[in-house]
Amino acid sequence: MPGLSDQKIRPTVKPIRRGQEEKERLQPSLQAQAPSSVPLEERVPSGIPGLDELIGGGFEKGSTTLVMGGAGSGKTTLLAQYLFVGASQYKDPGVLLTFEESAESIFRHMLSFGFDFKALEEQNLFAAISYRPHEVKKLIEEGGGLIMDTITSIGAKRLCIDSLTSYMALFETAYQARESEIALFDMLRKWGCTSLLSVEGRLSDKERRTAGLEYLSDGVIVMHHPRNQSARYRAIEVLKMRGSRPSERVCPFEFVDNLGIRVYPNEIVFYDVNDD
To answer: Phi, psi (5° rounding) for residue 49?
Structure first.
């Protein structure tokens, strides 16, 4: 049937003229938000248009949330947007700790969304740290002093780690990995930032080296980028969010020039989400 494929790729989402939409600072209504046991004043806005409506108004202060997904699903962009909007709009200083892609590479790619991290660095609202996974392992074992110094120096309220997958691959046994996971999460809570951690893979991956992190975290967001017939689409879901009863919708999202990620919380994906 003509047009059927297009309808499946973007179900019921109104077209957007990229680059021409106003940068809306969405303030979701209480009616649209998922029920929350944590007051809004104790929550940290995500900076992602539409996402806060799925998680009860924002992340709980001091919480740690996993952002999971396959390669190219949008994890790094979501983390960067969380930090950039937090610093530029809410004046929440942020720190990016990257293991795989250099900070300079991330900065360069994020400019297409209007994320000028260099300008934030000059205002002392942002700092980036690039380490090899084995270097971070040593820092964690020693108490994370250098990372803590960076957080303290700018008064960071937001922290992102991209990504934990290569770090967890350092450990030879599941026991060692689990012990390191617990130590890392204890340290994150001591640092006091509201943190997002990216993880490569899906919950269904039985061989995933980071299996178990979702039980230690306060929240789990999954980003999908599966193929439907001859094209791919993007979807996001919130599997877990302590302090809230998250929306059970699997919602579409897209990348928007000069804005970043936009989530459509009132839309749903009408077919099975099976990443391949």
So the answer is: -55, 125
CB atoms within 10 A of CB 271: 13
Interatomic CA distance for residues 77 and 160, integer angstroms: 11
What are the pLDDT digits (tens) for 8-56?
334 434 433 434 344 444 444 333 444 566 777 789 999 999 999 999 8
Q: Which domains does the chain have, with CATH numbers?
A: 35-263 (3.40.50.300)
The closest of 191, 218, 213 to 95, measured between CA atoms, is 191
Single-letter amino acid, residue 70: G
Span 93-138, pLDDT tens digits: 999 998 877 888 888 999 999 999 999 999 999 999 888 767 767 7
Give 244's DSSP letter: B
**For helices 75-88 and 103-110, what crossing angle results, to 10°?**
80
Spatial neighbors of 156 by CB under 8 A, at least 6 apart, are 93, 94, 95, 127, 150, 193
pTM: 0.81
Rounded Cα distance between 178 and 175, Å, is 5
Query: For 184-235, what is each residue's pLDDT tens digit?
Result: 899 899 999 999 999 987 655 554 555 578 889 999 999 998 877 677 789 9
Query: Cα dihedral sign for 241, 149, 84, 222?
Result: negative
Q: What is the CA radius of gyration of the chain?
A: 18
Nearest Cα neighbor of 210 from 198, 193, 221, 218 is 198
The 3-state DSSP class for residue 64 equals strand
Write the Ramachandran bin of 155: left for phi over 0, alpha for psi from -120 to 50, otherwise beta.
left
Spatial CB neighbours of 211, under 8 Å, sequence gap ≥ 6: 205
- Pair of tokens at residue 42: 């104790």
